[in-house]
Amino acid sequence: MTDQYTFTDPVTQYRQDGYPEQHQDPPGLAAELEPKADHGEGSYRGTGRLTGRKALVTGADSGIGRAVAIALAREGADVVLNYLPSEEKDAQEVADLVRTAGRTAVLAPADLTDESAARGIVRTTVEKFGGIDLLVNVAGKQQYVEKLEDLSPEQFDATFKTNVYALFWIIQEAVPHMPAGSTIVNTSSIQAYTPSPGLVDYATTKMAINTMSKALAQQLAPRGIRVNVVAPGPFWTPLQASGGQPTSALPEFGQETPLGRAGQPAELAGAYVYLSSAESGYVTGDTLNVNGGMPTP
Ligand code: NAD
Ligand code: MG
């Protein structure tokens, strides 16, 4: 069986053709993506890098968060899975994969635009696991709006609540329960540096995540808690097929990258595992770009 260590040509490893036009209502479901994304279900091989860790992953039902949850579990972590209630079907599949890996999965549906719900998923983790030592924030809202006049204040607010405020609420609630050695990994985007004209609200939140993480990393370093960021380029996930891009952009999705194709969520797992494990022990306040070769600052 091939796994993430198999010698492979990255140009041809995955679909190079772009994706068929399709639309789901946000947040969309992995189960309805056509073609299906690869989250590492059949390939990610753990080697005990996170044995016994207590993890909380947001956006864990689909896309990047699903790939992260699978990888953390196969590396030996128990995982609380957060997602929106409408994503229960996707989340159940991830819970099954975590349990098949021999680890505990706890389902924690919650809308993170609500402060008490966001803080609540941390309390659930502490109640179920007795603490938290891996916090991976993957949940995010991205809705493409071509004209500024059409960007509603409600959307602007919801994008900031989901991508920035929730991060603050969750991290503030979690830190008192995180022992030295714990890690926080947040999710930014190539959009932080090269914003698309139709992603004004989203791109701004992603730069905020980079900056918040760098400030927090310095503040928390003396306590032995590291904070890092993964900044993906174009990855095939429900977010892209439910308004994150104009539908007409999907046939060329990802082809602007030097590798000439979109990434698959499975290709991000290694970045999150590295930043969550002790092997990155001297790395904090950094952003790891996984984007098919697009230049970053
Ligand atoms: P995805 O749709 O699979 O995941 C996003 C998840 O965010 C959803 O599954 C949902 O559970 C969660 N979410 C959204 N609003 C929420 C809310 N109010 N409360 C709770 N959860 C909420 O798509 P993805 O592409 O895997 O996105 C994961 C992260 O990766 C996001 O932060 C996104 O900004 C980031 N990202 C994605 C890409 C890409 O090309 N797919 C590129 C750069 C960054
Ligand atoms: Mg989802």
UniProtKB/TrEMBL annotation:
Query: One Pfam match, by short name?
Result: adh_short_C2
Family note: Belongs to the short-chain dehydrogenases/reductases (SDR) family.
- UniProt keyword annotation of Oxidoreductase present: yes
Please give the superkingdom of this protein's source.
Bacteria
Q: What is this protein called?
A: NAD(P)-dependent dehydrogenase (Short-subunit alcohol dehydrogenase family)
Per the record, where are the segments of Basic and acidic residues compositional bias? 33-42
For the region Disordered, give the residue spans: 1-48
Q: Which UniProt keywords apply?
A: Oxidoreductase
Residue ranges, compositional bias (Polar residues): 1-15
What species does this protein belong to?
Answer: Rhodococcoides corynebacterioides
Kindly give the InterPro entries that the UniProt entry links to this protein.
KR_dom, NAD(P)-bd_dom_sf, Sc_DH/Rdtase_CS, SDR_fam
* Annotated Ketoreductase domain residues: 53-239
The reply on keyword Magnesium is: no
